[in-house]
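$ ./design --mode recover --in tokens.txt
reading tokens...
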């Protein structure tokens, strides 16, 4: 097999282990091979060798045991078991629905197109449709990346709204302290120094919140990153983080300046 493996037992080929006769019961589960994305996201499994799980087909509950986990392959979305076990557990299902065809090494693009045309023409009555493995995998990854981009965008919007809410909260807090600010102005503190003090207080809250959020995100992502060979691009998250920090600092400065522009003399009189 030329498929890449996410998890496998080095003592024996997972494809050979599929040939082990099994009944699909809890005492004798069917050996199965899964793709990593199918195991983690569709079946919500751990994605490791030896893991047992059950799946219901119609009115029939079948027990499985994972003997291998593939990584980023065209076999996503399916449970792969041996043919003999399949015929035993699902006797009502017959025929073949998919074929994996490997051309000779060095076959040109025109040669691949000729093979596809010949196969589809010869099996046209059966409705055979051929597709390249690269094309199928690209479509699968496109769907996955679309979901990830959507959730990343929603997370970024949540961060921006949270930062805006922090700015409003900071402005309200500063306005509630007008009497304190008025007293400090009366004691000779320059306005610029008070603005700087408020900015430091607000900035500390901003970076403390971002730090806690980054630690939580790292803790949630660490198991997947440590267990797989995932290629992670940090450009998008870092750009989003930079925008959040920039807008957060702008909100901090705005809240401090607006607070100091309020008439503080009345607040000082009412506090007597």
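writing sequence...
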């Amino acid at each position: 097999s030329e498929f890449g493996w996410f998890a496998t037992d080095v003592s024996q080929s997972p494809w050979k282990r599929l040939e082990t006769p099994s009944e699909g019961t809890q005492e004798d589960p069917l050996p199965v091979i899964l793709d990593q994305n199918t195991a983690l996201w569709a079946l919500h499994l751990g994605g490791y060798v030896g893991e047992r799980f059950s799946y219901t087909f119609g009115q029939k509950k079948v027990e499985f045991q994972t003997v291998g986990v593939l990584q980023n392959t065209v076999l996503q979305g399916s449970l792969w078991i041996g043919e003999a076990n399949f015929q035993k557990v699902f006797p009502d299902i017959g025929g073949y629905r998919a074929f994996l065809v490997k051309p000779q090494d060095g076959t040109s693009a025109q040669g691949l197109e000729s093979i596809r045309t010949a196969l589809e023409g010869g099996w046209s009555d059966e409705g055979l449709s051929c597709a390249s493995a690269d094309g199928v995998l690209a479509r699968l990854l496109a769907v996955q990346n679309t979901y990830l981009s959507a959730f990343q965008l929603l997370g970024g919007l949540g961060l921006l709204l949270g930062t805006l809410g922090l700015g409003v909260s900071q402005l309200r807090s500063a306005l509630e302290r007008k009497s304190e600010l008025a007293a400090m102005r009366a004691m000779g503190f320059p306005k610029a120094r008070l603005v700087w003090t408020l900015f430091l207080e607000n900035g500390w809250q901003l970076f403390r919140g971002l730090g806690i959020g980054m630690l939580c995100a790292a803790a949630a992502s660490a198991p997947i990153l440590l267990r797989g060979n995932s290629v992670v691009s940090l450009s998008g998250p870092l750009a989003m983080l930079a925008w959040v920090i920039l807008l957060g600092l702008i909100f901090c400065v705005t809240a401090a300046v607006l607070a100091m522009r309020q008439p503080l003399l009345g607040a000082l009189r009412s506090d007597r």
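exit 0
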